[in-house]
Model the fold of this input.
Amino acid sequence: MASHKTRYEDCDVLVVGGGMAGTGATFEARHWGRDLKIICVEKANIDRSGAVAQGLYAINCYMGMQWGENQPEDHVRYARNDLMGMVREDLGYDMARHVDSTVHMFDEWGLPMMKNEKTGRYLREGKWQIMIHGESYKPIVAEAAKKSADKIYNRIMITHLLMDEEQKNRIGGAVGFNMRTGDFHVFRAKTVIVAAGGASHIFKPRAVGEGMGRTWYAPWSNGSAYALPIAVGAKMTQMENRIVLCRFKDGYGPVGAYFLHLKTYTQNANGENYEKKWYDQTKELVGEYIDHHPTPTCLRNHAFIQETIAGGGPIQMVTTEAFQDPHLETVGWENFLGMTVGQAVVWASQNIDPKYTNPELTTSEPYVMGSHATCSGAWVSGPEDLSPPEYFWGYNRMLTVDGLFGAGDTVGGSAHKFSSGSFTEGRLAAKAAVKYIQDQKAEGIKVTDKQCDDFKETIFKPLETYTVAQNEITGGTVSPSYISPIQGLQRLQRIMDEYVGGIATNYMTNGNMLKRGLELLAWLEEDLEKVGAEDLHQLMRAWELKHRALTSQCVTEHTMFREETRWPGYYYRGDHMKLDDDNWHCLTVSRRDPETGKFTLEKVPVYHIVDENEKKKAS
Ligand SMILES: Cc1cc2nc3c(=O)[nH]c(=O)nc-3n(C[C@H](O)[C@H](O)[C@H](O)COP(=O)(O)OP(=O)(O)OC[C@H]3O[C@@H](n4cnc5c(N)ncnc54)[C@H](O)[C@@H]3O)c2cc1C
Done:
């Protein structure tokens, strides 16, 4: 390993991932910890990294409390309804009560916000969404982080968390490598905030071959947010709650502005409103949840999927009416130009002008994330003033490993945070991390050179494997002694697709399929010991793949554990097709034993805090 220099950095707060949550955490850590050493480490470059890299056209989470538009309680009810009851209301409320202050800072920092000319308020796209000219969104929040951190490290992928060797179950930092220099980086830290985004490309995407890389969630979101904590034995929650999105076909262009602002609507190939056709069938599966308003996202997907299976496709978005209005036509195009340029390019290449042709929609492959209409992620402590005992162990957003915090997509149970809520959650986690240090909880951490050196050997092993095994390449990239990251990725995607409820089976799985999927994932894990990397970029791909594979194991274990179909339209358990509130009105929590690699799962009560508190007040 002599060729890879080792560089050490000791710090108080280490932020892993400089996306929305990571920039929020870095910014807030400085506010509370004036004298602390704060480091942010990012796989790409924080100016243009993460899911917001290209920009956004709307901030999807803003209460508008200053104008009495919404209250945090309303948002909790909304998220609870959308997730078929399964959210951590303490976390959701906590985020919602602080999110407006985050958005006001974005405004002060120069993010161009659209205003309602009559009222002077932020222009609403929907009940929760406000419209922005958001191409510069990410550079603006990155600037706040850069001004707050002692140092930002770009181009370093964190591969493992370090553990304290003095006190059991306490964090000690993180290690990774620089993808440009090949240096090995050791960050010994008193607290670590994991903010490494969600996971795309664990299920086989619709776009393969020439289209590979076109996905809805950012293709570089590789599940580090889950794999890092899972590997050190942190508990995870709701990992079965993968999300499927209805999006414009092939370009994955978002539909929010179209539905909410342009008031476009969907139809089947015969021009019919297909959603109501599936009402009775859906009611059979989920009971009264189908009568909730707004209709939960998964149930709208369900109607789409059923209609397509029944031969009613292609499903279209009716744009030809709204686009006759020149203002709405401009908004429709600008929506993509500031956020998903690829969709505009796809339409151009397919000769689609939405003014004259209703574009096709599709349902995406599943993604794993914690900030959208889904809530997979780490099991964290809530805030002390809101959380019941099962949900509270000292520090807000701290995982079940002491000193390890999470925010944004990393955190499970708190759906519908989006960009602003993720930044807000980063702020909350950082405030708690600083308090943890100030409370002297991080004294005497010991991380030996041996622990670091062992990781160094592990991290660079794929380069060694390739160097040796390349001599046996028989044709192209085929070698009996190693697999390449892309070969491993495609194998992972097929396993997840075919056994764990991806597009190949119309999101259907069952206990037997999942069992088989777990076997195949175990063999893949074994073979990933032989992944080879020909250069530093491929080394990154190798570690992205390993993180995706571990995340996938956790998703599969959770999907097997929950014996019901809680979210039809996200996935189906063919052996338990109905929603089962009697047995499964609960959260699922897992832990992987770092020694044995075995997962154990448990049910944890879901508390409906908001309305319970109101009921108590009334009585
Ligand atoms: C296409 C699309 C449209 C969206 N539309 C909207 C919208 O209109 N409005 C809205 O409010 N929200 C929207 N969102 C959601 C929003 O982008 C996310 O909720 C938010 O970015 C999540 O924040 P995060 O910090 O958890 O993840 P990210 O912002 O993705 O940040 C994660 C960061 O971690 C880094 N990272 C990953 N692994 C590692 C590692 N191992 N080591 C070091 N760094 C690592 C990544 O490079 C990245 O910078 C959209 C997302 C997408 C993809």
Notes: Residues 17 and 455 are 20 Å apart (CA to CA). The longest strand covers residues 6-16. The two ends are 68 Å apart (CA to CA). The chain is about 35% helix and 15% strand.
